[in-house]
Amino acid sequence: MSEALERIADALDRLSPIPLEKPNFDQCDVFLWQTKPMGLVPINNVSCLDINLLLGIDSSRDTLLANTLQFARGFPANNALLWGARGMGKSSLVKAVHQDIGGVILIEIQREDLSSISDLLNILRSSNKRFLLFCDDLSFDHDDTTYKSLKAVLDGGIEGRPDNVLFYATSNRRHLMPRDMIENEGQSGVNPAEAVEEKVSLSDRFGLWLGFHSCSQDVYLAIIRGYCDRYLIDINNKDLYAEAIEWQATRGSRSGRVAWQFFVDLAGRRNVSL
């Protein structure tokens, strides 16, 4: 009988998930959460702009900087949703704030991995470090129930969100859901008002909403001028602005991302390394 029990115990051990290896958070201050295999991957080379080069978003920059500094110092802070126009520096701001403040570990998590976020929180909960979870380009489509995992994190659930964890997300959508997904949710016998409330309430769980809007031409040109000054590219404003406006016209849009793409081209033509 005992041998049979031992065989059953061995079989159960083999079926049990392998315990996650505790990462060395002194190794670096940026990690990527992955699920196959599940664990935290250290990121040593992070693409990040200096926070002083992010122009035209002063209010959002100052608000997010202050909120993150509160958190880094051990005081209460809000989860933040950065939403709005594409290419206006939402994700760049999160990374720049993290770099500027220091003392906080940044962990990026992909939207499709949000269902495993409770496993990540179990790792972070027992640490004496402070963590900023970051999900870039967050949105949810039809038949996507991943948002329920996120709601549990933002609310804290029964166990509560760890005091040493904060969540920042960027999105092009203010409410994270397609409008038709919100409006049509009530057509399957569910009370429409309740369905809308269920979807919209996800965004409400972020204490900070920071809006990003398309930039003016003056701001677009000022961003490029700032890049040139920082990387010591000698070019007069007349020539610079003429080239930048022509570049913008070919792209059919104007944003911080388009400004950077123009500057990369300019730096390449001027044999300047970035």
Please give the structural blueprint.
Elements: H1 2-15, E1 30-35, E2 38-42, H2 58-72, E3 80-84, H3 90-101, E4 105-109, H4 117-125, E5 131-135, H5 147-155, E6 165-171, H6 179-183, H7 192-204, E7 208-212, H8 217-230, H9 237-251, H10 256-269
Parallel strand pairs: 1-4, 3-6, 3-7, 4-5, 5-6
Antiparallel strand pairs: 1-2
Q: What does it look like?
A:
- This protein has two domains: 30-212, 3-Layer(aba) Sandwich (Rossmann fold), CATH 3.40.50.300; 217-269.
- Helix 2 (58-72) packs across helix 3 (90-101), helix 8 packs across helix 9 (237-251) and helix 9 (237-251) packs across helix 10.
- Residues 11-18 and 185-190 have low confidence and may be disordered.
- With 274 residues, the chain is of the alpha/beta class.
- Helix 4 links the parallel strand 4 and strand 5.
- Helix content is 44%, strand content 14%.
- It contains ten helices and seven strands.
- Strands 2-1-4-5-6-3-7 form a seven-stranded mixed beta sheet.
